[in-house]
Amino acid sequence: MKIFDTTLTRLQEALDVRLVEHNVLAGNVANADTPAYRPRELDFSQAMAAARETVASAGMATTDARHLATGGAAIGAGSRATGAAESLVHQGAGTSPSIDGNQVDLDRTMAGLAENALQYGASARAAGKKLAILRYVASEGAG
Amino acid sequence: MSIESIGTLSGPAGGVAPEPRTREIARPGEGPGSFTEALGGALGKVDQIQLEADAQAEKVAMGGGNLHEMSLALEKADVSMRLAMKVRSKLIDAYQEIMRMSV
Amino acid sequence: MDFLTALRISGTGLGVARTRVNLATSNLANAETTRTPNGGPYQRLDPVIQAVPFPTELGEATGAGANPPLQAEVQAIVADQTPGRRVYSPGHPDADGDGFVVFPNVNPVHEVVNLMSASRSYEANATAIETLKTMAQRGLDIAR
Question: Taking CB atoms and an 8 Å limit, are C10 and A26 in contact across chains?
Fold first, then answer.
């Protein structure tokens, strides 16, 4: 019986990947004036798929019949999802070449930052709400 | 004693034969319209609302979905769960009250 | 990668923008300076900006395979060696033998454009930090 369902896991993964995306975008903004800099990119759906796979396949292996079965997949899931997403960061083609070779489109990057933050907030809000419902039920209507 | 037997008494002897009415007397607590069914149905609906909220949250987590739909679904789930909990406490209180009654 | 990393990356972006602003204002202020401690007219200064991997305490670049997000850093400040314009002005104290004075190679229009660009960069990085703060707040709200 699982107390925390897969939806919560998806939301956790979403939060991790969104944070990685923010770092990528912030790096692009910080280097918006660096000559010959090509912006880094992260494909969100790809990263989510990789995170889901990494989280699902991890967990402690039981190699002996006497080992206790563990639901170990949840342990350390956050850093694994982050790692999976990080490894998918790649150099983008760049959209606004300029004389000094810098290819960061600042406006698009800022818009991406705003959208990413919004989605992060939405996932965080959903996770908080689900946990609040659980908390309410667990405390028999008192919390 | 069933009502049908009264009908047969008055029928051939004259007078208006009442229409024989059959009524299934259901065992208390089961059958259509019973309390158990109503409660079960209501809990099922609460469960559906929770699942719908889950589905919306997953959609948003994956990057698609609609933010206000998700918020509405989550809020409905919250409210319906609170109502269900309230019903549960009331049921428990009612049960305890009944058990307290001195026979 | 976490919140601290994002904060530091944006911080370096702010630093680079500020350096650019400082250099642009220095160039503008010295647009007519014909005499410097080094002798000769003022030479405009340019920053050399490069992107460097973000170091961890262990001294190695953080995760993210071959393409980690990079922080920006001003590697050096170089003087522009382009000779400035020469103006014939024999009465000027800094006039050379032929009566020409060499003025700095500063084009005020260029410097103002650099100033505006650096200002926009600074704002963009500041917005990135604000966005990060909002995200962090939302994340903490889960456990409110």
Answer: yes
Span B62-81, pLDDT tens digits: 988 889 999 999 999 999 99
Q: What 3-state DSSP class applies to B34?
A: coil
Phi and psi angles of residue B63, each rounded to the nearest 5 degrees, phi first = 110, -15
Do chains B and A meet with 3 or more Cβ pairs nearer than 8 Å? yes
Q: Distance between CA atoms of C42 and C62, rounded to whole angstroms?
A: 42
Q: What is the pTM of this model?
A: 0.78
Handedness of CA A60, A63, A68, A71 (dihedral sign): positive
Strand partners, C76: C48
Dist. CA A82–CA B83, nearest whole Å: 38
Q: CB B78 to CB A129 under 8 A? A: yes
Minimal Cβ distance to C135: which of A32, A83, A120 = A120
CA separation for the pair A22, A16 (Å, rounded): 10
Question: How high is the ipTM of this complex?
Answer: 0.79
Tell me whether residues B63 and A126 touch, CB distance under 8 A. no
Minimal Cα distance from A90: which residue of C? C67
For chain B, say whether A5 makes contact (Cβ under 8 Å).
Answer: yes
Looking at this protein, which amino acid is placed at residue C28?
Answer: L
Cα separation, B22 vs A87, in Å, equals 74
Backbone angles phi, psi at C61, to 5 degrees: -65, 145
In the complex, which subunits touch B with 3 or more CB pairs below 8 angstroms?
A
Report which secondary-structure segment, H or E, holds C74: strand C70-79
pLDDT single digits (tens) A85-112: 888 888 877 677 777 788 888 888 999 9
